[in-house]
Amino acid sequence: MSRNNQESTSSPFLNDYKRNFVFKRFLQTFIGGPILKFNSGIDVPAYIYIFQIGLFILPFIIGGISILIHDLTNAGKYGGPNSNYSLIYFSLAGGGIYFLIVFTLKIITISISNKTNNSNENFKGSKGPRLLSDEQNFEFTKLFSKKTLQFLVANSNEIFVDLSSKSKVKLKYLFLTLLRTLFDSIFAGYIMFCSIYFESIIYLQNFYALGPSIILFILHWIVLSMSLYSLCFRDPPEPSIYQPFSNAYIPINVIFYLKIFFSCLPVTWILGLLPPIDAFFLWLAEQSYIHLYGGTATATNLRLLFQLFISVIVSMTHFIPNDIAIVVIFSAFGYILSSIDLLFLNEWLICEIKIKKSKIAPVIETKNSIGEQKIKRKYPFNWKDCLYHLIMLILTITISVVIFTVFNAEFFSYEDPFLVETIMLYISIGIFIICKIFGDLQSVFLFFGLIRNPFYPKNSLSLNLSTKNPRTINQNKIFFRILKYIRLILLKIISPLVLCAVISIDCHLNKIYNDKIFGYWRTLVVLRAYRWIWQSSYYCLMEMCATHIFLFAISYNSVTESMTKVYLIRYFLTGCLAASFIRDRLSQMLNKLYAYILITITAWTIKKQRRSLALIFLVLNIVLILPTFIFVILPSCILSAPLLPLFTFPIFLFSFPRPKKFWPQKKNFFSKSIEINDVSSTSNTNKKPSSAEGFFYSQLVPDLVNSFKQHIRSGSIGQSIQADTFFLSRFQDRIIWIQVLESSNSFYVINIKGLELQETSCHTREAQYIDDLFELNFENSLGANSNSQSNKKILILNKKPFNCMSSKDILLLNAYSDARNSLVGILDYPENLEFLCQIYPKILHYFLVLFLFEKNKNFDPKLNEELNHLPPSVRNSKASLLSAKEKEPSFINSPEVKSIFEDTNELTIDSAISKKNIFLSKKKNDNIDSFDDWSDSDSDMEKNSKNNKNLKNSKLSTPSSKKKENTDYDPFDFDLNEILGNSSAGKKSATKKVEVKKEEKYLKNERLSPKNFKKSLEFQLPMSILSLPSEWVTFMSENLNSSQSLNSEELKKSLGTKKWLEKILGLNPRIKLDESEKLLNDYETNIWTSHYKFLLKCLQTLNLNEKTVNLNYNSEAINNFYRGDLPWSPANEKLMKNFKDLHSILIKSFRYAIKMTIDHATLSPISDDDEFFETLDSYEKEWFIGCENDEEFGRQINEKKPFLFSLQRDSLKKTLNSRNLSLQNIRSPMAKLNSEIVKSIWASTNLELLYMTNDDEERYSIQAHDYILRNLTIQSSDPPLGYPVYNSENVYISIANPFFE
């Protein structure tokens, strides 16, 4: 893609390197595979050319010698029985010799390749690597060597058997290898046998003269040599590529078309007119299904083959010798096949059976349920649709049978059925005209997009809608709603039933059953007619009315009136089938002519598209328009193949025929890639978007589908939308590409793609053209000089009709509006950074409290009361045991604890706690040892000495004794028991001494049995629900220098009251406590101090000091912190590695603080705690604040969070930018694209990228083109050719019931 503003005149079709490459590939394709032109710089010996030429002419040598010997030995005897037998013998000999040569070479090459590959460790474990067979990957050293043989028999190198794999797998691949080799060799020998037998000059002289016989003989053996070389030795590059990464069909393609095209095979092959074998059969099946059985193009190969099979089975009722039975079956299945998706019904039944067997409640899979083994209900039951289908099916069968049998009554004459049929056809003409008018009045333009609809709302992009949740722009007008429902009833109910009666009368007048083989055609056209009236009611009305008028016109001047009736009766349904085919091909022809003219003219009129040869091709295409029409456009229409403008320049060919969905199946050939979901759910596809931008489109899908469904029902985007239709919609920086893959009476299958948001120059130019066009068509249709008088004009012409888009209507979507703002002067302003330092600890405390509530949600206050009756040190010891048990599940099984329980004697509290202290001292030292590399703690020897000292002293150490021993005590240092909330701050030493005495008395008097002690270990909760995790406190105390602790009087003032905790609890009603008042009192008297000290330590480790924040936090530091990287320090490295919960809380708090700082500076100041909590509450309920590359960001988009915020940094300008997404009702204009222009560009891209490998980002064919949207169309191609940021699975839309939305 163009990344700059260079004009297209400087963009080459092919650069110099690609020109040589394409010429070499073209030559290799033309001659069938041999490489006669190598890259420069490669030393290729002469024997390589000789060997390739020898293998190429080998069939001619063997066949020529066999034919020559036969003709010489049987001169003058040709045609006799001995001569025929002799020819068979020589043919068998020639075929057998060629078979042996090919089979031997292939087996030897496979053996050599597998030995080489298995000896190479890089290939071990691979199932089938492809050895690169191009000349640059080979070094030719000897005349007879492994490399030479591998180069000559290149297609055998792809067959690889992994000898290091399991025996069963090895045998499987070995068997498949031998089977394929044997098949190719036998097939090559058989072709040689047939060629020798049928293509001798003497044999050809039975049909042609000597001169033509010699020419045909030479041409045949040239084509045969090309075909056999590609089959046996090397696959030639194929211009017509359907599967991007598969060349398995290339040899079969050549052999398949060998007898069909014979001498013209090289020309048709090199021009890419012959489809690959898989594309050919899919195209043939699709065309047969559409035009013979009244079907539609399908979204997947499985659906096509399944529905074609059902249609063929139904048509076998031709052999039932009863016309009434045939009418019942055809009328029933005509409705069922066109309105009820049988494959969908089968999948629905299977899903229901699985749900019942699994006994799991059906749920819609969300992000939280990924990985869970739950069955997702993809096919919701809709009783309204089922009831509607049942009623319509009964009506169809009833009308068909009644009309067919009623005219058998004696009181009806022969003339009456014909008269009734004629009347109904004229009624159908009236219905068709009404539906056409009512549908066109819903759209913005009338008469082929030339005149603006005077009834369509003016300034529709800014029009205020009175309806709360409108589905269309015209929904608030009763007039348009009446037109919509009248059209639906006429088109979906009345017209099919009227036409059903017409077909039944025709079946009565011209009987169905016929025991002759040609009678099957009559059965086929009747079955097609019964289905087509439902499959496409609008076009069926048009075709039947046109057929009736045409037959009446050509038979009007007949000799007798009875002859006119014979024409109308006998050929009516056959004429309808022919009319359908002609209408389809005529529509393609008009679109192709339009594409031909548009591409030709704009190549000269647009200066940026103009090249030196543009004027020459403009003149040639105008002068030679008739030959081009006859030899290019007309054949492509007949074959339903896309035009191919080479490099999207006005050099026109036509591509190979393919299915209407154009691109191959996304998965394997028979995969059910269609994803049928309830459009009311939050996600219409299981496919995860490939980028953050893809989530914006993924969120749009449900609303887009619902809105698109309403426009289909109203007819504003087309009277009858067929498969192979494209739509484009745009709003803000988003472009939505919609492709209709399958259409029916009651459902559609579409594919939705979202194009890139980060616009390049080409993308921007075409997107701007779309914006201008939509602005002109929907908002300011009179142009820039419109005034009040001109607004009263009724007849307004389309100002820009000459392009590939036809504006239709407006989609109403609930989507995100994107606003990006620069933060220069906000986050680099000192006062705002100081405000950030002030609010950050408050936000951190808010999330800290929430985390503690979530972690300790099973906290039981009654258990806490029992512990409170114990003396402090015993209570602390038990609490430590409980926290240790909670942290380490294997605590109860440790040797120290087991030794306690193994003692059969009763244990005193003194001895039990002494043993517990031994264990905890070891546990603590183990934890400290894990941080030795980052702290200045004592050495291991000193630790061991301290541990030994603790083991000798069985007395408990109290906090007061610790303070006495520590002479360097800092007032901001941590006391573990104090921070855990187990002792009050500010206790006097006298009180502590009293507690120690009480404790000693308690230890002497209390006795604890092993059973009671073990029961005490079952406590799961800390001393308080708001107690900080001990590992966090230990980490902060050991890794941070207490002398550098911060102090904040404002923070202390806010946190020191229970009102602060009340506000936090008030913002989270999901937090419920039975004794909240006691918790608030405990918080105010005891717990808040530990939280306050912990917050100060967090500010210290993050360098969030009001005095130095300007120095520590520039744009890069803020951006890194916002995205999850804490300011670097040894302590923070440990924190991010070992304390994931704390790390996530710190990051989330900083993101909220950044958002609050921006709002404080730009919207309204936050001056007190009430405003702080009000702002925080709005963030929690309505906002998601995070990064675009987070998975949570995409999930919140799909869940339709009202607002999203993210921070970005411009690395060039070194500035910060904010991105605010707000969920709004968006109006997205939609246009219908010319399908032939789209497929022409896709065909050119397919040839250019896959065959020519021309992926230059500055090539001519990808440059912006306003009128055909070339760059956007290439983007919308299926990967790997295109690069849409979002590509949905196939989406199923049900529109069965016209009475219910």
UniProtKB/TrEMBL annotation:
Span list, region Disordered: 931-969
Subcellular location, record wording: Membrane
TM segment ranges: 46-68, 88-108, 173-198, 210-233, 254-274, 326-349, 386-407, 423-451, 485-505, 532-554, 566-583, 589-606, 613-633
Residue ranges constituting the Pecanex C-terminal domain according to the UniProt record: 1101-1288
Family according to the record: Belongs to the pecanex family.
Originating species: Brachionus calyciflorus
Keywords, alphabetical: Membrane, Transmembrane, Transmembrane helix
Topology with respect to the bilayer: Multi-pass membrane protein
UniProt-listed Pfam families: Pecanex_C
Name listed for the protein in its UniProt record: Pecanex-like protein
Cellular component terms (Gene Ontology): membrane
Biased composition (Low complexity): 947-960
